[in-house]
Amino acid sequence: MTTSFAPLTVAIGDLVPHPANVRSNAPETYDPENIAHLKASIAVLGLLQPLLVQKLDGKYAVLAGGRRHAALKELIADKASKGFTAKTKVDCRLVPEECDVTTALSLAENITQAPMNAIDEFEAFARMMEVDGQTPETIAKTFGTTVAAVKGRLRYGLIHPDIRAAARGKVITLDTMKAFAEHPSQEAQHEVFEALTKDGGYLQAYTVRQALKSRGVQVKDDIGAFVREDYEARGGAVAADLLEEHSVLEDAALVETILLEKLGATAEEARIKLGFAWADAMVRYDYATMADYGRVYPGPIEPDEAAQKRIDEITAELEKLQLEMEDEGLEDGAYNALYERVDALEEEARDLQEAYSAEDLARSGVIASWSGGQVTLHVGLVRPEDTVKKEGARGSSASPTGEEAPDAGEVTYPASLAEDLKTERAMALGAAMALHPEATLDLTLFKLVSDVLASGMSVTQAIKIDARKEYRSHAKMDEIDETSLEQVAAAHDALDLSWLDDTRAPADQFAAFRALEAGEKAKLVAYATASTTQSCFARDRQRDSLMHAFEIEIMPDIRVHWTPNAALFNRFKKAWLLKILGEDLGLAQEAVTLASSSKKEIVAFCDKLFAEPFATLTDAQRAAVVAWCPPMMQTAGVACDEAEPIEESPEPDSEVAQAA
Hints:
Residues 386-410 are annotated as: Disordered. Residues 304-362 form a coiled coil. Residues 8-111 form the ParB-like N-terminal domain. Keywords: Coiled coil. By secondary structure, the chain is of the alpha+beta class. Among the domains are: 6-111, Conserved hypothetical protein from pyrococcus furiosus pfu- 392566-001, ParB domain; 260-382, no CATH class; 415-560, no CATH class; 566-633, no CATH class. 46% of the residues lie in helices and 9% in strands. It has 26 helices and 14 strands. It has helices spanning 36-45, 66-77, 102-111, 118-130, 136-143, 147-157, 161-168, 174-179, 186-197, 205-213, 222-233, 252-274, 305-325, 332-353, 358-361, 415-435, 437-453, 483-493, 506-514, 518-530, 545-554, 566-569, 574-584, 588-594, 599-611, 619-627, and strands at residues 6-11, 15-17, 51-56, 59-64, 89-95, 217-218, 238-239, 248-249, 278-282, 294-295, 299-300, 354-355, 364-371, 374-382. The strands form four sheets. It has a five-stranded mixed beta sheet with strand order 1-5-3-4-2. It has a four-stranded mixed beta sheet with strand order 9-13-14-10. The protein has a three-stranded antiparallel beta sheet with strand order 6-8-7, covered by helices on one side. The longest helix has 23 residues, at 252-274. The chain is elongated, with a radius of gyration of 38 Å. It starts with 5 loop residues before the first strand and ends in a 33-residue tail after the last helix.
């Protein structure tokens, strides 16, 4: 059937919805937010397509064009719109009253129109600007959208014609085509397109973006933002994009030159301030390349009267801040502010109590690199040719005090943390004793006999035979890992305590005790001895060689009895955590990624990692996570000649320490 629909004009106020309109049961279609673009277009360009109407009950019912009708009513209600009232007439086409295919007409109007190709839309926006003289602002007003959204479409419409043609021909995907907009220069786009497609094969958006990176640095990148002012001052070419953040600094070599100069200046400033012999810079700190470098550390110095007064003030303030940070209801912003203050105070206290020796300063230096969007300083490095080697070691050096310098992977601790770690280690050793009754029985008997026969000259400070449990003082007793406590509790549950009956006379209890099997007696003695272990490990082989050897025998791996947790990590500085991840555990990429995160986020990452090593770890990384513990808690296979902690002073920044 062929039907002609007569044209006519109808006042907007005389238009009503038609019950046969196929969208009539979808009122959300006409919500103001869903017709905003259409409303803006009609306001600027007018009604481009007539409405299809049918006369019903003296009104004109809109059979097709319901969204246009809704937009017209919105324009009437909008006082800011000019020229639209209920009496304003719009173009329509009239469907005869006797027509019996009204629903079919409405449906045909809605489904027979092919959706617009995305590339057509992009190119249309570009033509509006290039041919019609429109601006992103006027286009946005026409379509009721934001200027940023218009610029986004324009960028795709301005991609090199050959690349757009390839997308139309399905040679590349739409996403791949969009990737070329990462660089505003059509010339650079085309060169990359030609290079990537010359051998055929499937072209991916990721490959395009990576190739375009070699053609410059976007100003939105952290490096681009860091060097841009100097780059433009030197006349560096900038490929301007409609969206400023996508503009590109085209001379990548000049960008790197300026970056290295700025890094070098920061390194030189640190060299002068700290007194090092040399300064250097590198864009990315290469841990593999730097493996042959040694490192020196500041040693303790005696503060003068003024310095000591300031240290006391800092200590008091740190204690106050620590209490504030323990508030579980603290918002992240407030916590981070407290953490930054703590970090600054600890750094100030460290500078007052530590210094590099003149000998170390004469052969060491500082390297500045770019990491996590900021300059990172790596201090106290010793070049391979200047490193003092010791037997079988690489990159080792002596400390300013003449004592053995800590290993490059080692972190030393403030006195309070060191004491708590000793306590946790003593508890782990107690658990190991309870699980090795025969060896512990021998130790206890030997200790008892040698103490008596040697006129009180103790062979170990770690075991007390005084018939009472040892109280182990710990600042965070409710937050430590409970593995050792659970193991000791399990050992207690397995004891034969049938002889221990308070209703019996002591002689009867003793008789029952003597009647126990040797193995049961050994368990009892081991448990009792385990309960008397103290947190007094000096880790000095000469001072306590007995306990050192015994500990290695029954506890070669402390991780069987203890696991690092969030409570421990929260007491570490952010720089320590990044150093442990990057150097000790081999998770260098994760350390770089987390460098810009808050300490709370890094603590959560470490806690999850140690609770259950990630499936994505390599075998080497997994082994490192399973074995890691603070160096002062290590036993077998580790050089343990540590010096006692000196004062309540923070650890110097590691090589991931952030520049101020």
